[in-house]
Design goal:
mainly alpha, Ammonium transporter fold, two-stranded antiparallel ribbon, 2 strands, 67% helix
């Protein structure tokens, strides 16, 4: 009778714990159902950004290149996910190997060793790995905007695979892994809350290098190359804005105060960036365009990405304004500088990422700055500025050199720039045998 009573009591305790959402891992961590639910939502939101980016980019290219351009984003979803599961997650978040260039632990191979792992934040490690994997998808997809309408599909696929392994993964490890050298630089480390350095600067700089290496689209800038569908671009910008809440607020890896702070900063920066762009266009060109509004949204979102969890609302508003100003100037100067960044990957992501990573120092929340002051005295702000600048320069140099080497290798192996006849035909027909608009004559 006593044994039956004991077993019944134990069973009752297990049921109560399960209903409460508390599941213990072998090391004693337990699942926080609230944090897990938010991280699952954030993971889905970040993935939503990839078709959003496909729509944004697809609407900006000519009719004959719509599907080919959108396929750049969708192909990244397949290629980068597979690589992430096999080795990518381990390279980013494993322990230092090769002098800290990347991380590794054999348990991360094919994610085999994390089947029952619960992180100290209270979420299954599977959720964290999938959340971070979405960043690894969208980053190389951003680069595609710089050389849209003139790259072979095979060459692109090989390029992003190598770029993810050799450029993105090491940068991610340096900035976000607990033993990464940029993570541990200074009192606060190099602050990159959600990817200003890892995602936007690396993608923007890599895009610039690729655009220069491949040369301009045939006929650029003499021939007009109007967007095929600005309505689709606007819808893509809206999806990116929505998805960015997962991108930034999800990077808190919790469901609490820091999540609310990051979400608020994200909304404010996007809005101030969009309004600033409209004002600049109105003054400079006499008209406020839909494309300008969409560009301003992205400029604000990019700039607040590294800062979302560390700046107060006034800082988020300021970053949106500053980013739109600098991005507008860079895009305006593009034709004078003589390179063809087709969809302004560098103009928005590279420029906005640098603005956010550097300027966040002057709007940083007091609780963060106190740590820098404690270690550096009155030089706290300037010390953090130096750390941020160092991280930006390292990311720029590494991404530029790594991208150039990969471009050389891929071009030698399979060719990267589309042959003249295929470029004139259009990527949709040349590489996919399809047309984005049915029977519409491509132009």
């Amino acid at each position: 009778m006593k044994k039956i009573l004991l077993k019944s009591t134990i069973m009752l305790i297990v049921i109560v714990l399960a209903q409460a959402g508390v599941v213990f891992a072998s090391e004693g961590n337990h699942i926080d159902s609230g944090a897990t639910a938010w991280m699952l939502t954030s993971t889905a939101l970040v993935l939503l950004m990839v078709p959003g980016l496909a729509m944004f980019y697809g609407g900006l290219v000519r009719t004959k290149n719509v599907l080919g351009t959108m396929m750049h984003s969708f192909a990244a979803m397949g290629i980068m996910t597979v690589l992430w599961a096999i080795v990518g997650y381990g390279m980013c978040f494993g322990s230092n190997v090769f002098g800290g260039w990347i991380g590794w632990d054999k348990k991360y191979l094919f994610l085999n060793g994390i089947d029952t792992e619960i992180m100290s934040a209270g979420i299954p490690e599977y959720v964290f790995s999938m959340f971070q994997g979405k960043f690894a998808i969208i980053t190389p997809a951003l680069i595609a905007g710089a050389f849209a309408e003139r790259v072979t599909f095979k060459g692109y696929c090989i390029f992003i695979a190598l770029w993810g392994l050799l450029v993105y993964n090491p940068l991610c490890h340096w900035v976000w892994a607990s033993d990464g050298f940029l993570f541990n630089m200074g009192a606060n480390g190099a602050i990159d809350f959600a990817g200003g350095t890892v995602v936007h600067i690396s993608a923007g700089i890599s895009g610039l290098v690729a655009a220069i290496y491949l040369g301009a689209r045939r006929g650029y800038p003499e021939t007009a190359m109007p967007p095929s569908n600005l309505v689709m671009t606007m819808m893509g910008a809206g999806l990116l804005w929505v998805g960015w809440f997962g991108f930034n607020a999800g990077s808190s890896v919790t469901s609490g105060l820091s999540t609310a702070q990051a979400l608020t900063a994200t909304q404010l920066a996007a809005a101030s960036g969009a309004l600033t762009w409209l004002i600049i266009e109105g003054v400079h060109q006499g008209k406020a365009t839909a494309l300008g509004f969409a560009s301003g949204i992205l400029a604000g979102l990019v700039a607040v990405t590294p800062a979302a969890g560390v700046v107060q609302p006034v800082g988020a508003l300021a970053l949106g304004v500053l980013s739109s100003v600098f991005c507008y100037l860079m895009i305006t100067a593009k034709s004078k500088l003589g390179y063809d960044d087709s969809l302004d990957a560098f103009g928005v992501h590279g420029t906005g990422g640098v603005v956010g990573a550097i300027m966040l120092t002057f709007f940083i929340r007091k609780s963060w700055m106190d740590q820098a002051i404690a270690s550096s005295g009155d030089w706290g702000v300037w010390h953090q500025l130096g750390v941020q600048a160092a991280a930006v320069l390292i990311a720029i140099a590494y991404a530029a050199v790594g991208t150039f080497v990969i471009l050389l290798a891929v071009n030698k192996l399979v060719g990267l720039k589309a042959p003249r006849e295929k470029e004139m035909m259009g990527l949709d027909s040349a590489y996919h045998g399809e047309h984005g608009y049915g029977m519409v004559n491509p132009s």
